[in-house]
Amino acid sequence: MPKHSRTVGSTLPNAGALWSTAPPSIEAVTKTYTEWFSQASKLRDEALRFAQDRFTKELEAATQFARCTNPAEVFALEAEFASKTAADYLAEGQKMVELIRELAEGVSSSPKAHKTHH
Question: Could you tell me the residue range of the domain that residue 81 belongs to?
Answer without folding.
Answer: 26-105
